[in-house]
Write a structure and sequence with these properties.
Number of helices: 18
Distance between the termini: 70 Å
Helix content: 25-40%
Largest sheet: 7 strands, mixed
Shape: globular
Structural class: alpha/beta
Strand content: 25-35%
Length: 502
């Protein structure tokens, strides 16, 4: 009996061959070196031979290693089910059935003779994630169990606890639909897939890493252009929204949006682009990754493996006759220098930085080696933003006014606020017992003027810059958060988590 090792066998169609039984007994037809034959492994040889003897198909039988056979099995699993999810695939699972309930009440995944329960479970996981508005799906492998968690409104919540063996089957299924190597468990892998629910397609970016007890998967659900919120839908105050309109009327200069990871910077930038996109304008972006697919702008995906970085891509963009350029993130001096030169030579430049507030953005650019006079000449506005969870209607009054008083007393410009009734999260079935229903953006926006430009050119530090910005009428991030707490729109705990004490 021949033995083939480290191969990538190709699935073939054989008339009258029962694929389900082939998967059950680990005997599958394959094309190897242009030959058609049956493959199995030493581990499953007895079962495979018993099944082979019942067939009347004139193909030789050969052995291969476990990893090669796993790749062949993956091919056949894909032939058994479509890559794109259809809502009809999931209708067999009740809409209100949680992933945990699916495991408890559904078929025994481990004892099943085929892959259907795993496929249904993964389909259900995607369906639940889209239904609940999750931005990310985490699948984690621990010593004795696995976890599935969704990031909803910026916070991770556990959706299901799995047996460890089931976790590995789910991860293998994710690898199959993402065109990743299911036999590779030692190195990180990145891939993409698509799901289709109710005729709506969602791109998913897949990242796998090996951890101590097994693999961990994180899937980011990427949005389409029709899901990009308008400036009004972002949730900023009227004062800031009016500032946006003034900023976007400029034909050149640099606009920076700052904040930590997950604070909604990319969404805000794409909202800006959709506001100013017209057929007369050439808009080009370079992003890592492309999180929103938009039909009316040209988008470039960073690819360091082939030398396409933010800086190299930005140089090429400048030769493409752009009117408006968006750079996903300024990470180094080279990118910052090219971006500022572009802003000074007649382009509207939009980008992001990881800083805590508007004044610290100036200091960060100086730390990168950018001359203060160049910053003063090119920068037209800075927005520092956060995403805050808003309270559900089940909220209840809170007695934690003493802590809020202490926060107000620390900042002289906040003393004009008086404390009334504030609220805290309670939890009900409508908000999945979290106490919060959605998120809105808050921020501080500063539009550059001659006084601030002069201070920047003089090399003034960020503390003095912040004082000057407040004196010029800028409403700080702390102030915006405080107003949400006093208005009963969010809790003190949520405001502190986002940055009320920073």
């Amino acid at each position: 009996m021949e033995f083939f090792e480290h191969i990538n066998p190709e699935a073939v169609h054989i008339d009258n061959f029962p694929i389900d039984d082939g998967l059950k007994y680990s005997l599958l037809p394959a094309r190897v070196d242009e030959r058609k034959l049956f493959l199995t492994t030493k581990k499953h040889l007895i079962d495979a031979l018993n099944f082979y003897n019942k067939l009347s198909i004139p193909l030789d039988i050969a052995l291969t290693d476990e990893d090669s056979f796993a790749r062949l099995t993956a091919h056949y699993l894909e032939m058994q089910t479509q890559k794109n999810l259809q809502e009809s695939d999931i209708e067999a699972i009740e809409e209100d059935l949680s992933l945990d309930d699916f495991i408890k009440e559904g078929l025994d995944i481990l004892e099943s003779e085929n892959s259907a329960p795993i496929i249904k479970f993964v389909n259900s996981m995607f369906y639940q994630a889209v239904k609940k508005g999750a931005s990310d799906i985490h699948i984690e492998t621990h010593e004795h169990f696995g976890l599935i968690r969704f990031r909803i409104d910026g916070v991770l919540s556990t959706q299901a606890k799995l047996q460890k063996s089931i976790t590995s089957l789910v991860i293998n299924r994710i690898k199959v639909i993402s065109n990743l190597d299911i036999s590779e468990r030692r190195i990180p892998q990145d891939g993409r897939t698509q799901i289709k629910i109710a005729d709506k397609t969602t791109d998913i970016r897949v990242s796998l890493i090996p951890t101590y007890f097994g693999e961990k998967v994180v899937m980011r659900l990427l949005m389409e252009s029709e899901e990009i919120p308008s400036l009004q839908e972002l949730g900023f105050s009227d004062h800031i929204s009016a500032g946006f309109k003034e900023l976007l009327e400029h034909s050149y200069g640099m606009i920076l949006v700052t904040g930590p990871t997950g604070s909604g910077k990319s969404t805000t930038l794409h909202s800006f682009l959709q506001t100013i996109a017209t057929p007369e304008k050439n808009i080009i972006t370079i992003e890592d990754p492309v999180e929103y697919k938009a039909d009316n702008i040209n988008q470039i995906q960073v690819n360091p493996k082939v030398g396409l970085t933010f800086s190299s891509g930005l140089r090429s963009i400048l030769r493409q006759d752009p009117d408006i350029i968006m750079v996903g993130e300024i990470r180094d001096k080279e990118t910052a220098t090219i971006a500022i030169q572009a802003a000074l030579t007649g382009h509207l430049m939009l980008s992001t930085l990881h800083t805590n507030n508007a004044a610290a953005t100036i200091t960060r650019l100086k730390d990168m080696g950018i001359e203060p006079f160049l910053i003063a000449s090119s920068l037209i506005g800075v927005l520092s933003q956060r995403l805050v969870r808003t309270l559900c209607a089940c909220k209840e009054p809170s007695r934690e006014t003493h802590e809020l008083e202490k926060i107000i007393q620390q900042e002289p410009y906040l003393e004009r606020y008086s404390i009334g009734t504030i609220y805290r999260a309670k939890g009900c079935s409508a908000c999945n017992w979290t106490g919060y229903r959605s998120r809105r953006a808050v921020g501080e926006l500063f539009l550059m003027n001659d006084e601030i430009k002069e201070l920047i050119a003089q090399g003034t530090n960020d503390i003095e810059l912040k004082k000057a910005m407040i004196a010029q009428g800028m409403k700080t991030l702390k102030e915006a958060l405080l107003e949400l707490v006093l208005a009963g729109e969010t809790s003190l705990q949520e405001a502190i988590r986002v940055g009320l004490k920073d």
